[in-house]
Amino acid sequence: MNVPDQLRRFALTGAALAILAGTAAASAADGPTDFPNTFHTEEVATNGTTLHVRVGGSGPTVVLLHGYGETGDMWRPLAVNLAKDHTVIVPDLRGMGLSNHPAGGYDKKTQGGDVSGVLDALHVGKVELVTHDIGNMVGFAFAEEQPDRVTKFVLIDAPVPGVGPWEEILKNPLLWHFRFGGPDMERLVKGRERIYLDRFWNDFSADPKAWDEASREHYARLYALPGAMHSGFEQFHAFDQDAIDNKAFVARGPLTMPVLALGGEKSFGPTMAVVMRAAASNVQEGVIPRSGHWVMEENPTATIKAVTDFLR
């Protein structure tokens, strides 16, 4: 297929994905994106690991899944808004943020099982799902495996391995971070986590000034925790298996729940909908203006409005 201009721009800029313990963990949690005290946190054992989970509000349940370069902290403004009339569940993904760092299980099908286990532990049935970056991939696997459990699905600004124009994305040599990882690469970034992450935050933003210094320091501390960079690289290392799993999912037929596919104007744009129309039958397209990949940092007002208008 011909790749839309928006996808080509996304690939060329590399915005495909910009896809704990003790005192260090406590310090890293004390950042600019702290959730208010109307939320509480739980360490939830699930699927062979333990996830750090924020819970707040009451009403229909919505799950918010973050991506690489951030943690569940990215969702604070949206979570506070949704908590007015939703129960909001915000985990840190396996191996990221304050969740545990198991040796394996970074394929997104396994991580979809992590989400399912969290919901079971919290006695939650049906949910609305809002995802960004690698969270899109985890959410997609969860929705494919448990479609009756997902009532609405919002995916934001990242492709899904094996779905739609995925192969065109992989051809671009500028997406070097998809294949970056391993012991030597971990040695290169050890103690330089901020430098490595600045590349994502700067290159994938419409305006890097949207990333304030406090947020950069907050996430850099979290990714400098023991095992965090290794776990992050493993998220990307699993893409080949994710593509195999997702192609098998798509072959069974499309997802039927309402889907909102949002892209940043200066990043994935309307191509997010191109991706999801290859896997779902009821897709609404949206673009976040004046934003690159990091929609919650660059244009939170428009992002919150788009998501809440769709969910409410």
User: Quick one: how many beta strands?
Assistant: 8
Strand-residue proportion: 15-25%
Roughly how much helix do the residues carry, as a percent range? 40-55%
The CATH H-level superfamily is Alpha/Beta hydrolase fold, catalytic domain
Uncertain runs: 1-31
CATH architectural type: 3-Layer(aba) Sandwich
Main beta sheet, described? Answer: 8 strands, mixed
| Tally of individual domains | 1
If you average the pLDDT, what whole number results?
A: 90
Per the CATH scheme, the topology name is Rossmann fold
Structural class computed from helices and strand pairing: alpha/beta
CATH class: Alpha Beta
Sheet with most strands: strand arrangement? 1-2-4-3-5-6-7-8
H-E string: HHEEEHEHEHEHHHHHHEHEHH
Number of helices: 14
Radius of gyration: 17 Å
For the record, give the distance between the C-alpha atoms at the N and C termini, rounded to a whole number. Answer: 35 Å
Topology of this protein?
Elements (H helix, E strand, L loop, with lengths): L4 H9 L8 H8 L9 E8 L2 E9 L3 E5 L10 H7 L4 E5 L16 H14 L5 E6 L1 H12 L4 E7 L9 H5 L12 H7 L3 H11 L9 H11 L4 H10 L1 H13 L7 E6 L6 H7 L5 E6 L6 H4 L1 H12 L1
Parallel strand pairs: 3-4, 3-5, 5-6, 6-7, 7-8
Antiparallel strand pairs: 1-2, 2-4
Helix pairs in contact: 2-9, 3-14, 4-5, 5-11, 8-9
